[in-house]
Amino acid sequence: MSVISKRTALATAFAMTLAGTGVASAADLAGIQKADAKIQQDAVKSQKKINKLYDQAQDMLFDYRLVVDEYETLKSYNDYYAGLVADQEANIASLQTQIGGIEKTKQGVIPLTFKMIETMDQFVELDVPFSIDERRARVARLKEVMGDSNVSTAEKYRLVLDAYQIENEYGNKMSAYEGKLSIEGKELTVDFFHLGRVVFLAQSLDQKNGWVWDNASRGWKALPDESMRSVANAIKMARKQAAPDLLKLPVQTAEGAE
Fold first, then answer.
1. Which of 2, 8, 216, 254 has the greatest number of CB atoms lying within 10 Å of its CB?
2. Do residues 178 and 191 touch, judged by C-beta distance below 8 A?
3. Which residues form the signal peptide (predicted)?
């Protein structure tokens, strides 16, 4: 029952009491008024308390809603990063699998690299011996690199591939250079000339003597005098000392020099 209802009921009961007795004094009226005022004051105080509690409840509701909103935001944020973490874990697992594969590949690459160097070494020794010192030195460097722990497996393999590429390019290259040639126990300074792997010639610096390499017999054979001019012109062209022109060069075949 509200304060107002209590006051009305009290006033009604008091009036009935007066009616029943038929006596209503001034003192009694003053008491009624005083009681009524007290009831009104209490009602105002109660209303203020109610208003204060209502405001507090509204503040608590507002705070609650803020907490709920923050919770939802944090939950969404955590769910997002949980997805990222799961994706990262999947990537890590994939990388670990790939690393395992790389290790297996490295185990296969090292023996392959050694085999490639060995094959190149044999090829250089059996091939036409142009630029032989340079080519042997290249193979020796590859063998040395294979024992160097500071050079990665990938770099070692790359160096071997580069060496194979250089050997391949020799087949399309025309070159002339000065070097030493041992003929009949004598060491001569000569000009070497090679056109790919087809022709490998040597000519004395005075251009009076020349030789052609016979790879079948692994030796040098003397050239006739009439070949000297053609050999000299070829050497000049390789050194870019003469304009390109048709060359008539002696080629050593299985049947002899032509």
1. 8
2. yes
3. 1-26
For residue 233, the Cα-to-chain-centroid distance in whole angstroms is: 53
Residue 236 backbone dihedrals phi, psi, to 5 degrees: -65, -40
> Residue holding tokens 């004094």?
25
Instruction: Please tell me the distance from the alpha carbon of residue 215 to that of residue 132, in angstroms, as a whole number.
Output: 14
Q: CA 85, CA 9: separation in Å to the nearest integer?
A: 71
Q: Are 7 and 39 in contact (CB under 8 A)?
A: yes
Residue 49's pLDDT band (cuts 50, 70, 90): confident
CA Rg value for the chain:
55
φ/ψ (deg, to 5) at 255? -95, -10
- Is residue 243 classed as helix, strand or coil in its secondary structure? coil
Give me the sign of the Cα torsion angle 12, 14, 18, 24.
negative
Tell me the per-residue pLDDT of 166-220, one tens digit each, with 9 for 90 and over: 999 998 899 999 999 998 888 999 999 999 999 999 999 999 999 999 999 999 9
Supply 160's token pair. Answer: 């071997």
Across 83-92, 145-154, 168-177, least confident range? 83-92
